[in-house]
Design a protein that fits this description.
Shape: elongated
Number of strands: 32
Distance between the termini: 211 Å
Strand content: 25-35%
Structural class: alpha+beta
Helix content: 10-25%
Length: 502
């Protein structure tokens, strides 16, 4: 009877809830069309064999949608395959059925600014508490980056240019630390600035290192380090290994260690006076307390002792010239008293070498600059003196800090030249002069040793002359004594005169 009564009561209770239009299980006052009131598992759906279950769980602490068996919880739409998956270990996948990370996404994630204007981004919190220590997101319309609570925007990237900045929101170089103070330090590969001074590195056909300040190299940070160029083990504070050679205008072959088959005794038979390798080139003085040159006999094939008499003749033939430099900007009007390479070459060619360099044969600013199809047309008020075969010019743009080389495209007239320089923005160009491949230099060390040999010849001549003078002085002394003796009267003659005898 009790079971029938309970069944009847349940049917009556269910009927009353149905008639009230809201259905409740575990409650007499369902607030929704279908309400289940329980502490724990509520509604559950399971597979036919009961091995997979999914349902709801509620308690006074929270509400859950969960699987009630050891299976992932999948989310799908349109009666299709899972689009989101929550695995048993807590990994959540979007577009990934087996997420390997806490959040695993196949595709793009889009973050939008909030309606209240707050920037879209991701906050990173301190594990020890809930305070945020960093934010990754949008700084402005064209910049995204990392924001630190104590440091502001520490890292930023311009989304239009791809430039990355550290401690700057407006990087104007590919990688930039700090802000650039002076103008012109932009568009480089790497830059460091403090708002006043800047240092940049740019990689092109050559590597450019530029700075608004002096550059001090301090290897080992103690003033006792060494700098090596083309060497991993510098032997001195500055050690330059290797050199560069240029080809003479007649096409003579430059010495090469890798092609010694056509050489005899280290001399190229096609070029008896090869272009010497140059390791250091300077436009100004080199200051030092001493200059040491390689002179060990073990590196030389000695062919004999120089003929000092011939060397003296060469010295007597050399002309010492008074001159001033054409480059007045660098050298001013200072007078020099030295040799001229072309004159030395006539009598002593061993000490004269030829290189490729620029000469100041133009040395004037442009009167007009025009963009033409093949480059830029430069016009001058005076003749430019550029040779017909000129290939390059050394020029200074008014918006640049240093000289640069420019290819000559054509020479329309004796006051015009067309050069190929990319993107000239300068309003005036100073043209130093053209490049020549027979620029002469003089080995003053060779002249010094020539002078030593000639001085030794003079010393020998003086010594020989001194010996002759000494002999002549002795002969003169003997002759003087003889003359003196002839002038002295004898005793007999003196006595006869005294006695009156004639």
């Amino acid at each position: 009877m009790k079971k029938l009564s309970a069944i009847f009561t349940g049917i009556l209770y269910f009927s009353l809830q149905v008639f009230s239009q809201n259905v409740g299980i575990g409650t007499t006052t369902p607030s929704e069309l279908f309400t289940v009131k329980t502490n724990g598992k509520g509604i559950t759906q399971e597979s036919p064999d009961g091995s997979v279950k999914v349902g709801f769980y509620t308690s006074n602490l929270g509400a859950y949608l969960q699987t009630n068996t050891n299976h992932p919880l999948n989310f799908a739409t349109n009666n299709g395959f899972p689009q989101m998956t929550l695995t048993q270990n807590g990994n959540f996948g979007i577009g990934v059925s087996a997420p390997a990370f806490l959040v695993d996404v196949a595709g793009r994630i889009r973050l939008q600014n909030q309606a209240d204007g707050n920037s879209a981004g991701i906050w990173f919190n301190n594990p020890a508490n809930t305070s945020a220590i960093a934010f990754m997101g949008i700084a402005d319309a064209t910049t995204m980056g990392f924001y630190g609570n104590g440091a502001g925007w520490g890292l930023a990237m311009n989304t239009n240019t791809g430039n990355i900045g550290i401690k700057t929101l407006a990087p104007i170089n590919k990688l930039q630390i700090g802000s650039m103070g002076p103008a012109g330090f932009n568009g480089n590969d790497f830059a460091i600035g403090n708002g006043t001074n800047a240092l940049v590195i740019n990689q092109g056909n050559t590597t450019l290192l530029a700075s608004t300040t002096d550059i001090v190299l301090m290897p080992r940070n103690n003033g006792s380090g060494r700098v090596g160029i083309n060497t991993n083990s510098p032997r001195a504070p500055l050690d330059v290994v290797s050199s560069s050679n240029t080809t003479l205008p007649n096409g003579q072959i430059v010495y090469s260690y890798l092609n010694q088959g056509s050489f005899q005794n280290g001399i190229n038979q096609a070029n008896s006076n090869p272009v010497p390798g140059v390791s250091i080139v300077t436009d100004g003085r080199v200051l030092s307390t001493e200059f040491d040159a390689y002179s060990d006999k073990r590196i030389k094939n000695i062919t004999g002792i120089s003929t000092s008499a011939t060397d003296l003749k060469i010295i007597n033939t050399l002309q010492i010239t008074d001159y001033t430099m054409k480059d007045k900007v660098q050298y001013g009007n200072r007078s020099y008293k030295k040799v001229i390479a072309q004159e030395v070459e006539k009598v002593y060619p061993q000490v004269v070498s030829k290189h490729t360099d620029f000469i100041p044969n133009v040395y004037q600013a442009t009167a007009k600059i025009e963009k033409v199809t093949s480059g830029y047309l430069l016009s001058f008020t005076s003749k430019h003196n550029i040779s017909k075969g000129g290939k390059k010019l050394r020029v200074l743009l008014s918006d640049e800090d240093g000289m640069q080389a420019a290819n000559i495209v054509s020479i329309p007239s004796d006051t015009e030249v067309v050069i190929d320089v990319a993107g000239i923005k300068a309003d005036k160009i100073f043209v130093y002069g053209e490049e020549v491949d027979d620029f002469r230099t003089v080995d003053y060390e060779g002249l010094t040793t020539l002078n030593i040999s000639a001085t030794q010849e003079l010393s020998r001549q003086l010594k020989k002359q001194q010996q002759q003078i000494n002999i002549q002085q002795q002969q003169i002394l003997l002759l003087a004594n003889e003359i003196k003796s002839l002038k002295r009267p004898t005793n007999k003659l003196t006595s006869a005169k005294q006695n009156g005898i004639n």
